[in-house]
UniProtKB/TrEMBL annotation, chains A, B, C, D:
SMART domains registered for this protein in UniProt: TGc
Domain Transglutaminase-like: 162-226
Family annotation (Gene3D superfamilies): 2.60.40.2250, 3.10.620.30
Protease keyword on record: yes
Keyword Cell wall biogenesis/degradation tagged: no
Gene Ontology terms for molecular function: peptidase activity
Keywords for the protein's UniProt record, in alphabetical order: Hydrolase, Protease
Organism: Azomonas agilis
An example Gene Ontology biological process: proteolysis
Record protein name field: Transglutaminase-like putative cysteine protease
Pfam families in UniProt: Bact_transglu_N_2 (PF21295), Transglut_core (PF01841)
Length: 298, 298, 298, 298
């Protein structure tokens, strides 16, 4: 079990009309990622609400900010005890056995136009043995094709662009990997969190984007940009692609500052100190365990 | 109340490997669209299953087809008593009051890149009074810009393409209207059904694509292509755009024939015969009535 | 006659491999834009060559830069006596009468995908009386649709993007206007020069991009971004779009600084001082006066 | 020397307004491709004109068709004695030595967005030895990536689309190869002609699209789709991409029929009968032999 202290601070200057916010900065609270303590501070005296997306476990902080400075500080202690499994034991789930709630992650989305990658994906990955190793092969392919480069992509950049221009950041790597998985009928989704142990060349700790792939009835973590240690990720939100998951969706005119993020492993009174490390096993923080599909049981 | 008899027949030739199907040809069963009788016939002796998407009411027929001919016949009697309201009474719901389940219909999707239309939509529609009339104005704008033309668009065609090339079919009109609604923060979704009373120039009855927009706490029907009588639509599925909703998603190699569809109004023993007609009121077949957002109740 | 002193300074830092340059910073020398004096200074002792594109009058400075700092200073005195004509006298030239050398400016190019705008252009401009006023109407339409905004477009941005996102700089305005002209069979080309009298809000004098349209047998200046005084433009290069015309095309790795540009009207000993002003007449600096097309003369 | 008889018949039905045509169905007449006899028949009694593009040797038949049926028959006897050279002797020409007239074939165009392929092309081909073998490697790469498939691409399809979807026809193969060549600074252009010896599975003889690449001071033929025998190609036109070169550019409303094309090798009284065959040597039909670039000669 890994215990992490998380600290997120975001700052805005709101214009005279105020602005509505939908923030996804709360750590997901699942059976495998337990938020043991959390605290939210907003510098404005305004009502807020936290909506929980029961399907994904995402939590959304919603409020209407007043004109002027807005500072939000979220602190939490999170205990992550991943569901771990020998990666080679993981199998792809045939489409016929996928639960309905997972089917949408087979379909193309705004930034993951999997429909256009079908021929490519079949050619590159169609003959590989199915299972974890095939997903790994897709991840490695993306990592070979794309070079981590900042300031070359933007909020318009999609998997198509990244495939052509072969550069981008974690968001772009993730979109391309997702598109390729879906193109060979492997459900894949976009997940945001905080990174851990990122290469210091990339700057201070930051929000991170990675991929979850549905194998053997559960969503497993993949980190196509390879810039951080997956075991240290704290999951915030998950969705079809970056269109669904943003740490702050803002309706109004505001000036933004860069978020300030700290995520550090700390000692647990019972389990002691465990630092996240690269491991061979597959990791999941996901609760979703739908019943197996049983056609004859209709 | 309108009573409709629906008959859908779809035919395929499946190759030697068989094929998995996810069909959305069952009429949605809601409080306002009641399926009073239905029957499904598949020519192959195979197990099947019907999954229900609780969020939208979509029903998915799932099975694995054997090699050879496949014929599916779905017949149903549907009683549609729309929720009807004076359209001018309908108001937009401020983002802050939208239920979480509706928020995703504000975000861009595969074929509705609303993020790229924001400036345009604000310029064209930003100063109009909010409410039903604004949505109507968006629909009329789409109808003026786009000419109904068959065989010029395909499964790749998105709202961007339709906006530029200004031609397409019901699917394309719908994608463009949805993108523009979302661009001014009005939730909009893509709905499939069967048409009714379509201009005979457009050929025999067919599957149809139209739009549902969230106003005053409910999803209301809009038909941007204007090719049929909304009161006669039988809703099959709804989703973010055509990527989510297809009458048949097929995993495998098959040859397809055009579907054969009949939807006719029939006499009801109690209410008599009512033919669908163009009406001024707004229509909804949607059950979803989420509780109002109440921030102070946090 | 307007006499202008032009001063262009560009600075680079060349890496250890050196770099090949093709610069288009020499003022075009035509019957109507006479370069009476010019001087080129390069800080490196390297051979160079000036190639002249006989079709357009563009002059290209070509050299191979050595590693280290590179400074190029071009100074010139230019006497511009535009070919001027009452704009309402200008007529469109039917395709059948266009000289072959002009035909390519009817075709789509990298950033001006006129083929995709045909329906739109016909709808918006197809019924307008042909001639100068129609081109003016296209220019005004672009100016209404697009808002001058810096730092939102880049070297990938095409007319399609500008049409959708409705913002950009002089390059983007020009691409969109060109695409729309070509879509209704009016030859249009992309021209670079130096601006004059630009709104000080837009910063210091800079390179400028504008449009030349072929009417009544000659290329006339249009300035869709409307940010400067066309009479003061000094033409450098012209081509199908920005892919063809760049003040510096560089093959190698270099660091760039912003160019420093001065263009000022000065007193002429004979004609005195004339400052550029907005005028109603149409202006051309173009020499090209092909013979009229005469089919029977074959 | 190969002697070919060419017969092209094209048929249209012109609507009541007539239509302007610019046809490029005349064989190019160069030092290496000599048109020894030709005949043009138009069923309408209308004036026409043949414009010659001096730069490329393209010939354009221009006329205004009257309402009603239009039939054009072009017959010619063409003697092709390619400039032939051992392919391994061909070298790339450094940008600094390229003649100005060739430079435009380094730049991106409507269907060959070479600017977006730079990273990819450098990664795949940047480390290969320069020269003919590198161009060959690009051709082979395109042939491996793309599968010849009819009816999946259209007049909008660009190199980007073909790269992603990996299927298309000769036009699409050519656009992708051109884009990749330009991305590594090798001039490449789009050439149309008639095919010869095409795989009968692909249907009757047809217009063909292939590539010319500038090596060692001359344009050499490459056939990325590999569907026919290059030695039997009769060159009609050449340009930056398909936007520039069409066998018929039509301004007006017409109904088209498929062109009927015959190209057969025939016996020459002096040289006898030589059928085109696949050969190892590089082939050119191009006249253009610009003087070498000589910077010190400025």
């Amino acid at each position: 079990m890994i215990k992490l202290n998380l600290n997120i601070e975001i700052n805005y200057l709101i214009d005279v009309n105020g602005a509505d916010f939908i923030c996804n900065i709360h750590a997901a609270n699942t059976h495998y990622q337990v938020v043991s303590m959390e605290n939210l501070h907003i510098n404005q005296s305004i009502p807020y609400r936290i909506d929980k997306d029961l399907k994904h476990g995402n939590r959304y902080l919603r409020f209407t900010a007043l004109p002027g400075p807005l500072k939000i500080i979220y602190t939490a202690t999170i205990e992550v005890a991943h569901y771990r499994i020998r990666s080679n034991d993981l199998m792809e789930v045939p489409v016929r056995n996928l639960p309905l709630s997972v089917i949408e992650y087979l379909y193309p989305s705004r930034y993951c136009q999997s429909d256009r990658f079908i021929r490519l994906a079949i050619k590159e990955f169609g003959n590989l043995p199915q299972g974890y190793s095939r997903v790994k092969a897709i991840q490695e392919w993306v990592r070979r094709q794309v070079t981590f480069t900042q300031n070359v992509s933007n909020s318009n950049t999609s998997a198509l662009d990244t495939f052509i221009e072969q550069q981008g950041i974690c968001r772009d790597f993730s979109h391309l990997m997702i598109a390729l998985c879906r193109a060979v009928n492997i459900p894949a989704r976009f997940t945001t969190g905080t990174d851990y142990g990122a290469n210091p060349c990339l700057g201070p700790p930051d929000f991170h984007a990675y991929v979850e792939v549905y194998l053997s009835g559960r969503w497993y973590i993949f980190d196509p940009s390879g810039t951080a240690i997956p075991m240290g990720f704290i999951r915030l939100g998950t969705g079809r692609d970056a269109a669904d998951v943003s740490f702050a969706t803002i309706f109004g005119n505001v000036q933004s500052q860069s978020p300030i993020i700290h995520a550090v492993a700390v000692e647990d009174s019972k389990f002691g100190f465990v630092a996240p490390y690269y491991c061979e096993e597959a990791l999941s923080t996901d609760d979703e365990r739908p019943l197996p599909y049983n056609p004859s049981g209709n």
